């Protein structure tokens, strides 16, 4: 019996999501790194912004239609806006690492290409952890129409206080 089959259903579903998310992440990491390296000569921060924007758009459609297809869909505008917002935060995480490499460690985009790729990969790893959490929590898993409002109960008033006759 496979280990995954021994897990409770909830954990199996999460394992499936993580696997799909990782597969899409691998594809988009390649897209991101290729574009980043092609544009590195314009500067690491600019190249990172362009590469991340292209990879983000690809990632949204792949995740929406494969990783999280089993979750309720909300409007494309809402989902993509949230998706883009959380990717901006992920971009800031990546850019902070590249900023430190460029301006804190004084790497040059002309001579330290490997160092920039290591920094880029480290930023991608940190950003990816954040993105997985944010996508699952806020983008694809958060919209459940009226499910939250239907389960809210109006609190019942406290029972009237009893008077102790022995006083």
UniProtKB/TrEMBL annotation:
Presence of the UniProt keyword Methyltransferase in the record: no
Location of the protein in the cell: Membrane
GO term, biological process aspect, one: polysaccharide biosynthetic process
Membrane topology field: Multi-pass membrane protein
Disordered, as annotated region: 146-167
Family, per entry: Belongs to the GtrA family.
Protein name in UniProt: Putative flippase GtrA
């Amino acid at each position: 019996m496979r280990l995954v089959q021994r897990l409770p259903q909830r954990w199996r579903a999460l394992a499936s999501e993580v696997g799909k998310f990782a597969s899409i992440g691998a594809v988009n990491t390649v897209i991101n790194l290729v574009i980043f390296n092609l544009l590195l000569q314009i500067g690491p921060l600019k190249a990172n912004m362009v590469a991340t924007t292209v990879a983000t758009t690809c990632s949204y459609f792949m995740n929406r239609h494969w990783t999280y297809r089993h979750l309720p869909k909300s409007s494309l505008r809402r989902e993509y806006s949230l998706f883009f917002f959380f990717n901006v935060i992920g971009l800031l995480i990546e850019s902070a690492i590249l900023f430190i490499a460029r301006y804190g460690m004084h790497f040059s985009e002309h001579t330290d290409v490997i160092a920039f790729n290591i920094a880029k990969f480290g930023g991608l790893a940190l950003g990816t952890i954040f993105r997985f959490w944010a996508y699952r929590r806020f983008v694809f898993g958060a919209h459940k129409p009226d499910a939250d409002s239907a389960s809210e109960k109006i609190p019942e008033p406290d029972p009237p206080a009893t008077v102790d006759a022995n006083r």
